[in-house]
Write a structure and sequence with these properties.
The protein is of the alpha+beta class and 182 residues long. The protein has 2 domains: 12-96, ATP Synthase, domain 1; 100-151. The protein contains 3 helices and 10 strands. It has a 5-stranded mixed beta sheet with strand order 2-1-9-8-5, with no helix packed on it.
Length: 182
Amino acid sequence: MATESQEGAARRDKLDFEIVTPKGRALKAEVDEVTAPSVSGEFGVLPGHLPLLAALHTGIVTYRQGTESKRCAVGRGFAEVGPTSVVVLTDRYIEREQIDPVLVRKALAEIQQKLVVAEANGAEPTPTKENSTLDALIQEENWLAAQLELYGDPPPATMRPFETFGPTPSPDEGDVPQEPNG
């Protein structure tokens, strides 16, 4: 019979991994390692990791259970990491078995056509709501591309020099109200 200290030591060799969407918990597993796409680049987590909060970019999450690696696609979101757990909060989640590549390619072609029209009309994404349609189209394009990558048939890379990542820029100094001295 294992003692509590032996069970505790064995437990620290695993991570409790969860992916949660607005529809509820999409995945719960005990894993050895997690790799996720942050807005600053891909990062990996092993048991004993220091606490971390990361903003996620649409892409592929890989997790390892023993010698078996599994992958899923996630949308924008956040990852909360601790020494024994990883929780991903995301707006979208899909596994390879749920993907119909023909439908995804058709939807991707439609989105890319809408992007061509929007770019021709001079639309540019900004942190304001006036061009949120362009941002939504780019996010949908990224989501569909992530699904095809997960399926194993990624689309050609696209370059959108105006695509925004990370936090919105700080306001200009003149836009920030100043407190009166006194």
